[in-house]
Amino acid sequence: MDDFRQLVLEAHRKGIRVVLDLNPTITSDQHTWALHWQRGIPGYEHFYASANRSKDPPEMESSEGPPPEDWELTQRTFGGHYVLNWSNSMVQQEYQKALSYWLETGVDGFYMKHLDKIHVLNLQDLPLIVRKWRTVLDTPHSSLWMHRIARNVLIVSAKFAESLAVDLSVQKELLKHVDLLDYPILVGNGKEMADQVTGLKKVSRWPKHFPMPMWHMGSSDTFRLASRIEPK
């Protein structure tokens, strides 16, 4: 962790902010929480949504969220995954501790991925969960805090924000705690690229209560953009 802290420090010296990608919807079945849950340790009985593992390995950045709950690995090199039960207050508390840990290293925020697949018993739980994340982000965590020129950022996907349209009150309450909405641009050819451009146009029609948009090009399972564009 000393190396990571030094990395963050050097990035800040160059005016670069460091934001971590996190998927809060699942953990490995070898995670400490999962082991406590499997053994029925008091307090962990309702930590996860299901005892079943998923049948396909978790996809990369382009995935639609956590894998199906009936997945089983044939060669369990790294294990399977369990879906967290975010309506459990203990899950919320433990994750807040994890966020605080990373903020103490000096990181500048988090991109919470796959939230459109987060497991809650009631949609009304979501604004409270995100508000707690916002509180952690706004709490001083290191001696460098007073020298910050901007608050820590919270990023979610545009797909997640749009999925909340089924309850506009939940959508509005939740998004007021979010700084940026991420919209992917998957660089390709022909109709695929035309579809991307069409999708971008709808950003201008987003409701006024939506946070500022941001874009990313490509994904973790494609070649880097710099290696796909010929130098002039």
From TrEMBL:
GO MF entries: alpha-1,4-glucosidase activity
GO biological process: carbohydrate metabolic process
Transmembrane feature ranges: none
Reactions catalysed: Hydrolysis of terminal, non-reducing (1->4)-linked alpha-D-glucose residues with release of alpha-D-glucose
Domain Glycosyl hydrolase family 13 catalytic span(s) in chain numbering: 1-150
The EC number(s) this enzyme carries: 3.2.1.20
InterPro entries, per the entry: GH, GH13_cat_dom, O16G_dom_2
Family annotation (Pfam families): Alpha-amylase (PF00128)
Protein name per the record: alpha-glucosidase
Organism: Stegodyphus mimosarum (African social velvet spider)
Lineage: Eukaryota, Metazoa, Ecdysozoa, Arthropoda, Chelicerata
